[in-house]
Amino acid sequence: MNERFQFDPVANLSAWREAMRQFLDEGWVGPRDLLPSALASMFVPLDVLDTGDDILVRAAMPGVKPENLKITLNGNTLTLKGEVEADAELEGAAYLRRERHASAYTRSITLPVAVDANKAQAIFRDGVLSLTLPKNEKARPKTIKVTTS
Length: 149
Fold this sequence. Notes:
This protein has one domain (9-90, 99-139): Immunoglobulin-like. With 149 residues, it is mainly β. It has one helix at residues 9-25, and strands spanning 46-50, 54-60, 69-74, 77-84, 103-110, 121-125, 128-134.
């Protein structure tokens, strides 16, 4: 039986385009995502939820102090910046192993809807940043009553 391999460039291009769209929509911000796990502290893992009225963002930012955290909203782009300070050196002590370092990281995502930045709330507890971003009134879901004539 002689089977031929059929190459469909349109189907392959569509699959590649969809894979790239998913990759970029996941909040990819650059080569940082491709770093080995030893440098994972520079990456901010997060969850984004839609409650209907609000967009909730939860970001793991261990080691960051609230004063070293910057949150900006520019249009629909949310940017989180955090900085982990270096530990003070202990006089007379020598490191046998050092895996924790001062670092800074940034994560930007595009929000799916417009939000009201003036009503946003941020809570930082136990290394997790929780943002509540109320949707812009125009972006909130509306219920339309159906009547019969």
